[in-house]
Amino acid sequence: MAETDSRINIIYASNDGYAGHLAASLCSLLDHNRRAEHIDIYVLSVGMCTEYQNRLKSLAASFGRSLSVVELGNLKERFPYKIDTRGFDISAMGRLFAPKVLPESVERALYLDCDTIVCGSIEPLYETELGECLTGMVMEPTVYQEMKETIGMKPEDAYFNSGVILMDLARWRAEDVLKKLLDFYGAHAGSLFACDQDTINGALRGRICSLPPKYNFFTNYRYFRYQTLKKLCAAYEEVGEQAFYEAKRAPVVIHYLGDERPWIRGNHNHYKKYYKKYLTRTPWKDMPLTEGKFLYMQLWWCFNQMTRLCPALRLAISRRLGMRVIDARKTGKERK
């Protein structure tokens, strides 16, 4: 990494609804990276209220770190065409605009989803050499083939999760990557199954560096075997069995991907203790659990046990139900 970019720049994107989860993630990040010389945090806000912004700034300051809020305003107005995020909150699209809204001095940055918890030093991740790649991300082999086909990908092609993104922002600006992303999304009528994630995978195909899974470990992958994931996507062989099981044993970044969220009452998420630990150290420590999904969480626990015993059955059910959710999003019936 270039000597001129010695500071660690962290990006989050959020609105009021995810501010508490962002705080838990931020607290875990700063707690496990106290030895880092410089860490600057940038929150890309989509209408976050002043009170929440100040809470986050105070939290960062308690660790001796700087946090800046960049207001994105009405994100829909930043697109030259009408968009449909298929039920996902539009704040998810905020990360695409990082090279435009952040200072030119920010030449490299690590984007983190709000639903992540950091369990170790992120310096080795941040210092990853990207070569000619524009970004570094972790593969997600369980993504539905229908989603990949929509963006012109084959079953064996690597597909990456956008929950953790190492960005070479200097190169993004030099190559006008934002325009490439917007053009790709527009070519698909501003409507893709996984909006920002599909856009990045489609537009930057071949320019994404594969990162070890420990830097974005999806909590539901605890129940999968490496061989199962490799069968789902041939590209996952590049990850390697050792790296996958290392991620299971000692994840550096935990990503609460999927329906079994640690803030939903009745969840059995194996990693929820880490989220609870850091949430209690934030101004959102008294945030109530989400109600109304208790039975659903019990079914998810059964679902995860099924994955251990018969992964093929779990995948078949997941695909059927998952595509129903996607179809519901097409008509606006499902909301995050």
State the main characteristics:
336 residues, alpha/beta, Spore Coat Polysaccharide Biosynthesis Protein SpsA, Chain A
Question: Any overview of this molecule?
Answer:
The chain is α/β, with parallel strands linked by helices. The protein has one domain (3-330): Spore Coat Polysaccharide Biosynthesis Protein SpsA, Chain A. 37% of the residues lie in helices and 14% in strands. The strands form two sheets. It has a seven-stranded mixed beta sheet with strand order 3-2-1-4-7-6-8, with helices on both faces. A three-stranded mixed beta sheet has the order 5-10-9. Helix 7 (177-187) crosses helix 8. The chain is globular, with a radius of gyration of 19 Å.
Outline of the structure:
By secondary structure, the protein is an alpha/beta fold. It contains 13 helices and ten strands.
The CATH homologous superfamily is called Spore Coat Polysaccharide Biosynthesis Protein SpsA, Chain A
Write down the Rg.
19 Å
Mean pLDDT: 92
List low-confidence stretches.
332-336
Q: Main β-sheet, in a few words?
A: 7 strands, mixed
- The proportion of residues in beta strands is 5-15%
Total domain modules: 1
Estimate the global geometry from the Cα principal axes: globular
User: What is the β-strand count?
Assistant: 10
Q: Quick one: CATH class? A: Alpha Beta
Structural class: alpha/beta
User: Architecture, CATH level 2?
Assistant: Alpha-Beta Complex
Count of helices? 13
At the third CATH level, what is the topology name? Spore Coat Polysaccharide Biosynthesis Protein SpsA, Chain A
